[in-house]
Design brief:
The complex is a heterodimer. By secondary structure, chain A is α+β, with helices and mostly antiparallel strands. Chain A is 52% helix and 16% strand. Chain A has two domains: 3-51 and 288-416, no CATH class; 59-273, no CATH class. Chain B has a domain at 91-116 and 131-281: P-loop containing nucleotide triphosphate hydrolases (Rossmann fold). The chains are: A alpha+beta, B alpha/beta. Chains A and B meet through α1, α10 and α11 of A and α2, α3 and α4 of B.
Chain lengths: 422, 288
């Protein structure tokens, strides 16, 4: 048996002998690891959920303006567009060579704080979120006729709406804004949860939006002019303008060429944005909080390691005799150093592994709940490289922390010699 | 090179060794076969004739010798001063002195754990002065078996693992054990049995044993692999009055069997009659 194997065996036996104390240290290291790796998992999945709020869309096109603002209203339905995009221009963009499909989006109305989005059937076919997942319906069907609405899952759950219910749209986004009370919509479908902004929205056809505004001008009903709901079909309901266009390309490699082409188009001034890039920028802007979280969990880890150092140091007094006996058997001071280092290495490794296992268990149990409740896709998946790095860092830090008592034991064993009678 | 153990039962038969301890009680020191080991009995200061073990071809060097050694404790006005002290091969030396007079320090100096201010310590022919730390640690593991007053054993290891521990740190003692008994396991079985430890105790944790059992297990460990020198630091003071002599006789018998020299440090002069020679620790003190 090699010397190291012998020392390793001694370290294991000795640790087992003091398992009560060491188990506590191990638990604290496991908790630290759990916290660090868990936060990292949540952070990366939240980021993925955010950046992949929209997927498969190569370009978001809107009227000339801020790229960030365009992404905010086109993807997150937050805020309002300062300018619209002419319907003819939108159709021209949709028929550019290389464009596979285009989803028109028209916004501006709301229902009890939830944005109402006008679109067409392409939306249900082409819209993708997170790693190319398509929309699916939890109940009912997509809207087809005028005054039919399909709800995002959160909208339906939050407002307690079900199939067949009637609702009216509010002009604008505020709660106090005037209602389109004369033209109620009927719920025909509810989308399955996506963990994306789709959940919070309501979807109607472009023509429906046109229809509720037939007798409106400049944000208010035209005085003395009222078109009842059953009469609107007599009007031309083709939209005059939309808010944004989500564009999918036949070949993703042509995205830069198309972006340049759209941005530089003569006529109506347009802005085309690659949503992934813009979302990434936005996340970095919002990412200050994650640094604080990381700092806090790093501090918790440091406290756990302090516990390791102090309890190993405290236990050293009782072990001096044992170490002196080993010295009398020919163990070198360096063997004592190795013995104690091995112990802290075993302890932190076991603690880190326990933490990872606890995280996996928590993900397996709580992951589906989190996905349902918050649309946060916390899934049981192999650890990412960054998580591996973090766990490795915990083990390395634990090993380094364990060196302090080990070095003390080294010098104690030199000073004590064989005087074990005290 | 190494003497076979001259005992009635072959130590390489585990079945016999597994019997209750009473059946394989060690022989009384007085009843041992004459001529099996005849250590020389040199007197203090006299020239020592090397104690030649019969089947040992060459004269062995003293197990330990000290020349003109001086040591002072940090900050202390008195120190240790040993002009000349020797433990011959196979010799059993009783070293007496009151507690707290530096006996443990002398043992540390002999073991090379503590370095003297000046002078020379030679272990089984190897001067410690010229050796670095690791070499001294290795030499200690090879040449010396220790028995302390108490707390001898590694508490979390079984008796069995404790006894085998010297072989883990010293390939030299592993080889010696294998040469004498066939394997280190057989050596451990033989030693434990002869030291009156029944097999059902072997797997027990050392800390679960009685004081007397612990001390006998410690003796077995010290004798494992037949180190040239056994250093015993007050090994009997934790034992009952009536057990001391029995333990001491067991120890001296086994030392003879193993061909190991014994340096036995104690304040209890009544034990001195069991030894080849006795020395008083008082002669080692003095102003530093």
């Amino acid at each position: 048996m090699s010397r190291l194997a012998c020392l390793a065996r001694l370290a294991v036996r000795s640790a087992w002998n003091r398992r009560g104390t060491l188990a506590l240290i191990m638990v604290s290291i496991a908790l630290s690891t759990f916290l660090l790796a868990g936060l990292e998992r949540i952070r990366s999945q939240a980021r993925a959920g955010f950046v992949q709020a929209i997927s498969g869309t190569d370009l978001v096109v809107g009227a000339r303006g801020s790229q960030l603002q365009l992404v905010l209203y086109a993807v997150f339905h937050l805020g309002a567009a300062s300018n619209n995009l002419g319907w003819d221009t939108a159709r021209a963009v949709a028929s550019l060579p290389g464009v596979a499909w285009a989803i028109p989006l028209s916004m501006g109305d709301s229902h009890r704080g939830h944005p109402v989005v006008g679109t067409d059937g392409t939306f249900f076919e082409r819209y993708k979120f997170r790693r190319n997942q398509s929309l699916s319906l939890a109940a009912g069907r997509p809207f087809e006729e005028l005054f039919e609405v399909t709800l995002g899952s959160e909208t339906a759950a939050g407002l307690g709406l079900k199939l067949g219910d009637r609702l009216t749209l509010t002009h604008g986004l505020g709660e106090q804004a005037p209602e389109h009370a004369d033209k109620p919509f009927v719920v025909v479908g509810i989308l399955a949860p996506t963990g994306s902004p789709v959940d919070r929205s309501l979807y109607v056809s472009l023509e429906s939006l046109e229809a509720v505004h037939v007798d409106w001008r400049g944000g208010a009903p035209v005085r003395g002019f009222h078109v009842p709901a059953d009469m609107v079909k007599k009007f031309n309901l083709t939209p005059k303008s939309i808010t944004a266009l989500l564009v999918g390309l036949e070949n993703r490699r042509s995205v830069f060429r198309l972006q340049r082409e759209i941005n530089g188009r003569p006529g109506e001034a347009l802005t085309a944005v690659m949503p992934g890039v813009a979302l990434d920028q936005l996340w970095r802007l919002l990412g200050g909080g994650e640094k604080i979280l990381f700092l806090v969990s790093a501090l918790v880890t440091a406290v756990g390691l302090m516990g390791l150092i102090s309890s190993v140091l405290a236990g050293l007094g009782e072990r001096r005799r044992e170490l002196a006996v080993l010295r009398s058997l020919g163990a070198r001071p360096s063997d004592v150093l190795i013995l104690l280092s091995l112990e802290s290495l075993m302890l932190t490794t076991a603690g880190a592994l326990a933490g990872v296992a606890a995280l996996a268990a928590a993900l397996a149990v709580l992951g589906p709940l989190a996905a349902d409740a918050y649309g946060l896709p916390l899934t049981l998946s192999p650890p990412t490289a960054r998580e591996g790095l973090l766990v490795g860092a915990v083990v390395a830090a634990g090993f380094l922390a364990g060196l302090a008592p080990a070095v003390r034991a080294y010098f104690l064993s030199l000073a004590d010699g064989l005087s074990t009678s005290t | 090179m190494v003497r076979r153990v001259a005992e009635g039962s072959s130590p390489s038969e585990p079945s016999e060794l597994a019997e209750p301890s009473g059946s394989t009680a060690p022989p009384e020191p007085t009843a041992e076969p004459s001529g099996s080991a005849a250590p020389a009995k040199p007197s203090v200061g006299a020239a020592r004739s090397p104690a030649v073990v019969p089947d040992e071809g060459l004269a062995r060097p003293p197990a330990a010798s000290i020349r003109r050694l001086r040591f002072s404790w940090p900050g202390a006005r008195f120190g240790l001063h040993v002009e000349s002290f020797e433990v011959g091969p196979g010799e059993k030396v009783f070293l007496s002195g009151p507690s707290g007079c530096g006996k443990s320090t002398l043992l540390s100096l002999l073991a090379g754990v503590t370095s003297p201010s000046s002078g020379e310590v030679v272990l089984d022919g190897v001067p410690l002065g010229g050796l670095g730390g690791p070499a001294r640690d290795r030499l200690r593991g090879d040449k010396i078996g220790f028995i302390f007053q108490q707390f001898n054993l590694v508490p979390y290891l079984s008796v069995w693992d404790n006894v085998l521990l010297p072989c883990r740190f010293s390939p030299f003692r592993r080889r010696r054990a294998a040469e004498a008994f066939g394997s280190e396991r057989l050596a451990a079985e033989s030693l434990l049995t002869r030291l009156d430890l029944a097999p059902d105790l072997w797997r027990r944790r050392a800390s679960k044993l009685s004081t007397g059992q612990q001390q006998r297990a410690a003796a077995a460990r010290a004798l494992m692999g037949r180190p040239p020198l056994l250093l015993a630091d007050e090994p009997t003071s934790a034992l009952d009055e009536d057990r001391r002599l029995a333990f001491l006789r067991l120890l001296t018998t086994e030392c003879r069997q193993a061909g190991s020299s014994l340096l036995f440090v104690s304040h209890d002069r009544r034990l001195a009659s069991e030894f080849d020679r006795s020395a008083d620790f008082g002669q080692f003190g003095g102003p530093s």
